[in-house]
C-alpha cells in the first residue's frame, strides 16, 4: 500500500478533467500539497492508505472554485455607495475613500476578510488586482489560499504611487520578491486601456515578459469607454493594447463586454483568458458579455465576482448560476452555457483563463490539492437522480448554495472543516472591519456636511474664492445704453454675443448653498456657436454688502471650469431643488476710470421675462477697492441714463422663482 496524508472517500468525485470523469463513489488521495490519486473509491482505497480518512458520502468532491477577477481589499467598502452610475460611484465615492484609507493594513485586513468569505463558498483560488498588492499577497498566503495577485498601475496618482513610474517600480519589486511562491503568483496589473499611456503599457509588458508572470487588465467593460477610445485613437481598444506589446505576455482580460468579433479573434490568437463578471456587469449596467460566442470560438472564459463594491459578495455559486442563466436570456437559447459548462468555467476553464491550469482547476494526479466538498443533503438538493450522470452539474449550478460547501482544502491544507474556518480568525476580522467602517463613515459624514467639501472631494481643480461688485437694472429698452456704449466716451474692448444655459442646484445646508452650472455659448454674427465654456460656481443667497445705487458685493466660494457632466453633478450632489435660467447676452468689456467692467445686456428666455436687463460688474479684492468701484458704477449708470426705480436687487434665479410662483 502506498501512503498518503488524506483520503477523501465515498463521494461523487467530479474531476473536471478533460473527459469530465465522474466517479461515484469515488476517492481522492492527497499527499503533502498534491493530489496523488483520483478514481473509483475501490481502486483508490485498494492502493492507498492514509492517516486521515474523510467519509464524503452524499457529497460532491470537486475542484475548489476559481474566482478569476476580484479586488479583494474592497470588502472593506462593500455597500458603501450603491445604485449609482459608474462615474458617480467611482469618482464621487470610491476614489476619495481609497485616497484617504487605502494603506497596506487596509489591504491586508480587506483581503483576509475576502479570503474568509471566499473559502466559505468553496473558492480556493482567485485573481486579484489592487493597490499594495504585497499586502494582498501576504494576507492570502497566511489564509492559505492560492491567488494570482496583480499590482495595479494607473497613469494617474493612486493610493500607493504618486506616478505610474512609481507604480511600475512597485510592480517590478513585488513580482521579483514573490515569483516562485508556493501559493501566490505575482502579476502586473495595468488597470485598463483608458487609464494607461502607451509607454506605461509597454513597460508593463516588459516586466511581465522579463519575469514570466501574467498580466491582468480590464478590457471593454463599458460602451462609453469603447466609444471614447475609438474617438480618441481611431481604433478599437484591443488592437491599441496589442500595439503596446501587452499580448506578448500571458494576459487575463476582465469583462470584455463590448469587444467586436475581430477583437475577440485577436484575444484568441494571443491566448488571452477572459474573466466574465455577470453580477458586476449587471449591477453597474455595463451590459452582457458575448460569452456564448467567446466559448464557441474557443476562448477560455472563466467567471469572476469582481470587487465586493460592485457585486457585493464573493459568492461563486451565485456567479456560476448567473453565468448560465444570463447566457440563455441573452441569446434566447435555453441550451446555451449548460450546467456542466458553467461548472467548468468556474473551475478548469477559470484556471486556464488565469494561466495556472497546470496547478489547479481539476482533480488530477500531480495537481495541487485544491478541493471543495459540497453537501447534497440539503432540502433544496433533494432528491437526486442517477439516470443522467451529468445531473450532478445541474444540481450544483441551479440548486446548490455556497452554504452547502462543507469542507475546503487548498494546497493540501484544510481551510474549512464542517463550515468552521481554520486559517483565519473571523471574529477578530469582523471587529477590525467594524472599526474601519466607523472611520470611513465619519470621513464621509464630515464631507457631506457642506457642498463645498463635497465639491472639493472630487475636485481636480483648486478652490478659488472671488468677490464681485455688481448692479442690475431692468430696462424697458436698451437704446440709451447702446448709445452710450457706441458714443466713443467709453473704451469698449470686446463685445460678444452669447447664449447662457444656467442650471442652479439649491441645497438646504446651513449655508443655503447654491451651485450654478453654466454652459456659455459664444455666437457668431450669424448665430452659429463658435465656442462654449462650462463653469461651476458655488455661492450663497446672501450678499456681503450693499453700496449706493444698489451695488451689491457678492462672494463665490468656488469657481472652476466644469470637468464632469451636469448629470454627474446632479446624481452626486442630489440637490433639494433645481432651477434653469436661459438667457441671451450681449457682453461688453469696457474700461472706465482705469478699471475693467463687464457690461451685460441680457434677455431672459427661460423663464420668459419681459424687458431687458443691464448688468455692470467688476471683480474686486478689498473693501476699499469695492467702494471705489461702486462709485464708478454709479457714474456709469448716470451715463447710461438709468433711473433709480429701474434698479433690481435680485438675481436671475430669484426672478425665475418668482415668475414660476406667479404662473401657478
Ligand atoms: Zn474589476
What is the strand tally? Answer: 28
Q: Supply the number of structural domains.
A: 3
User: Helical amount among residues, as a percent range?
Assistant: 25-40%
**Rg on CA atoms, Å:** 32 Å
Beta-strand percentage?
25-35%
Can you offer a commentary on this structure?
With 664 residues, the protein is of the alpha+beta class. The chain has 3 domains: 1-63 and 361-417, Urease, subunit C, domain 1 (Roll), CATH 2.30.40.10; 65-360 and 418-443, TIM Barrel; 460-663, Hypothetical Protein Pfu-838710-001, CATH 2.40.320. It is 35% helix and 30% strand. The protein is built from 21 helices and 28 strands. Strands 1, 2, 3, 4, 5, 14, 15, 16 and 17 form a 9-stranded mixed sheet that branches. Strands 18-24-22-21-20-25-26-27 form an 8-stranded antiparallel β-barrel. Strands 6-7-8-9 form a 4-stranded parallel sheet. Helix 13 crosses helix 15. The chain is elongated. The mean pLDDT is 94. Bound molecules: zinc ion. Residues 69, 71, 218, 254, 306-307 line the site of zinc ion.
Q: How is this fold's topology laid out?
A:
Layout lengths: L1 E13 L7 E10 L2 E7 H7 E8 L3 E5 L1 E6 L15 H16 L2 H17 L2 E8 L2 H11 L2 E8 L10 H15 L5 E7 L7 H14 L3 E5 L3 H11 L3 H7 L7 E5 L5 H9 L3 E4 L1 H6 L7 H7 L3 E3 L12 H16 L7 H8 L1 H6 L17 E5 L15 H9 L5 E6 L2 E5 L2 E2 L4 H23 L2 H8 L7 E10 L3 H8 L4 E2 L3 E11 L7 E10 L5 E11 L5 E2 L5 E10 L4 H8 L3 E16 L2 E12 L5 E9 L2 H17 L7 E2 L3 H12 L1
Helix pairs in contact: 2-19, 3-4, 3-16, 5-6, 8-9, 12-13, 13-15
The site of zinc ion has 6 residues, from loops.
Amino acid at each position: 500500500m502506498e501512503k498518503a496524508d488524506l483520503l477523501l472517500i465515498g463521494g461523487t468525485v467530479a474531476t473536471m478533467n478533460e473527459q469530465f470523469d465522474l466517479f461515484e463513489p469515488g476517492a481522492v488521495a492527497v499527499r503533502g500539497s498534491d493530489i496523488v490519486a483520483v478514481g473509483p473509491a475501490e481502486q483508490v482505497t485498494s492502493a492507498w492508505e492514509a492517516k486521515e480518512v474523510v467519509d464524503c458520502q452524499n457529497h460532491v468532491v470537486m475542484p475548489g472554485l476559481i474566482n478569476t477577477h476580484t479586488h479583494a481589499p474592497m470588502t472593506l467598502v462593500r455597500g458603501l455607495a450603491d445604485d449609482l452610475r459608474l462615474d458617480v460611484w467611482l469618482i464621487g465615492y470610491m476614489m476619495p475613500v481609497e485616497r484617504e484609507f487605502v494603506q497596506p493594513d487596509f489591504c491586508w485586513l480587506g483581503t483576509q476578510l475576502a479570503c474568509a468569505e471566499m473559502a466559505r463558498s468553496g473558492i480556493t483560488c482567485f485573481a486579484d488586482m489592487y493597490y499594495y498588492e504585497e499586502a494582498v499577497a501576504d494576507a492570502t498566503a497566511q489564509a492559505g489560499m492560492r491567488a494570482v495577485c496583480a499590482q495595479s498601475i494607473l497613469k494617474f496618482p493612486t493610493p500607493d504611487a504618486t506616478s505610474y513610474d512609481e507604480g511600475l517600480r512597485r510592480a517590478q519589486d513585488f513580482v521579483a520578491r514573490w515569483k516562485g511562491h508556493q501559493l501566490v503568483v505575482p502579476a502586473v496589473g495595468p488597470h485598463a486601456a483608458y487609464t494607461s499611456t502607451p509607454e506605461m503599457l509597454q513597460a508593463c509588458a516588459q516586466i511581465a515578459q522579463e519575469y514570466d508572470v501574467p498580466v491582468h487588465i480590464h478590457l471593454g467593460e463599458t460602451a462609453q469607454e469603447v466609444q471614447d477610445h475609438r474617438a480618441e485613437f481611431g481604433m478599437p481598444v484591443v488592437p491599441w493594447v496589442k500595439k503596446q506589446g501587452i499580448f506578448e505576455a500571458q494576459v487575463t482580460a476582465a469583462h470584455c463586454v463590448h469587444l467586436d468579433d475581430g477583437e475577440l479573434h485577436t484575444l484568441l490568437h494571443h491566448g488571452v483568458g477572459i474573466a466574465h463578471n455577470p453580477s458586476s456587469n449587471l449591477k453597474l449596467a455595463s451590459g452582457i458579455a458575448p460569452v456564448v460566442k467567446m466559448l464557441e470560438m474557443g476562448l477560455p472564459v472563466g467567471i469572476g465576482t469582481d470587487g465586493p463594491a460592485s457585486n457585493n459578495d464573493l459568492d461563486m455559486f451565485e456567479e456560476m448560476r448567473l453565468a448560465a442563466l444570463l447566457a440563455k436570456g441573452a441569446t434566447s437559447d435555453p441550451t446555451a452555457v449548460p450546467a456542466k459548462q458553467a461548472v467548468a468555467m468556474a473551475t478548469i476553464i477559470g484556471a486556464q483563463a488565469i494561466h495556472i491550469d497546470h496547478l489547479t482547476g481539476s482533480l488530477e494526479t500531480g495537481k495541487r490539492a485544491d478541493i471543495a466538498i459540497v453537501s447534497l443533503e440539503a432540502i433544496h438538493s433533494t432528491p437526486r437522480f442517477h439516470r443522467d450522470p451529468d445531473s450532478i452539474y445541474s444540481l450544483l449550478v441551479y440548486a446548490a448554495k455556497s452554504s452547502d460547501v462543507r469542507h475546503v482544502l487548498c494546497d493540501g491544507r484544510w481551510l474549512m472543516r464542517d463550515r468552521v474556518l481554520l486559517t483565519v480568525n473571523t471574529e477578530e476580522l469582523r471587529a477590525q472591519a467594524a472599526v474601519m467602517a466607523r472611520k470611513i463613515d465619519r470621513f464621509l459624514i464630515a464631507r457631506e456636511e457642506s457642498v463645498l467639501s463635497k465639491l472639493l472631494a472630487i475636485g481636480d481643480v483648486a478652490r478659488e474664492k472671488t468677490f464681485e461688485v455688481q448692479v442690475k437694472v431692468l430696462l424697458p429698452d436698451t437704446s440709451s445704453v447702446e448709445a452710450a456704449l457706441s458714443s466713443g466716451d467709453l473704451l469698449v474692448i470686446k463685445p460678444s454675443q452669447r447664449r447662457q444655459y444656467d442650471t442652479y442646484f439649491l441645497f438646504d445646508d446651513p449655508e443655503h448653498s447654491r451651485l450654478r452650472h453654466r454652459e456659455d455659448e459664444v455666437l457668431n454674427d450669424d448665430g452659429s456657436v463658435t465656442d462654449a465654456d462650462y463653469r461651476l460656481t458655488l455661492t450663497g443667497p446672501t450678499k456681503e454688502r450693499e453700496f449706493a445705487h444698489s451695488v451689491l458685493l457678492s462672494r463665490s466660494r468656488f469657481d472652476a471650469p466644469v470637468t464632469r457632466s451636469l448629470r454627474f453633478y446632479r446624481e452626486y450632489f442630489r440637490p433639494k431643488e433645481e432651477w434653469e435660467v436661459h438667457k441671451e447676452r450681449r457682453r461688453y468689456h469696457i474700461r472706465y476710470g482705469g478699471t475693467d467692467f463687464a457690461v451685460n445686456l441680457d434677455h431672459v428666455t427661460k423663464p420668459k421675462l419681459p424687458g431687458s436687463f443691464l448688468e455692470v460688474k467688476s471683480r474686486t479684492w478689498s473693501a476699499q477697492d469695492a467702494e471705489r468701484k461702486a462709485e464708478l458704477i454709479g457714474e456709469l449708470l448716470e451715463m447710461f441714463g438709468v433711473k433709480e426705480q429701474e434698479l433690481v436687487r435680485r438675481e436671475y434665479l430669484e426672478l425665475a422663482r418668482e415668475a414660476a410662483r406667479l404662473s401657478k
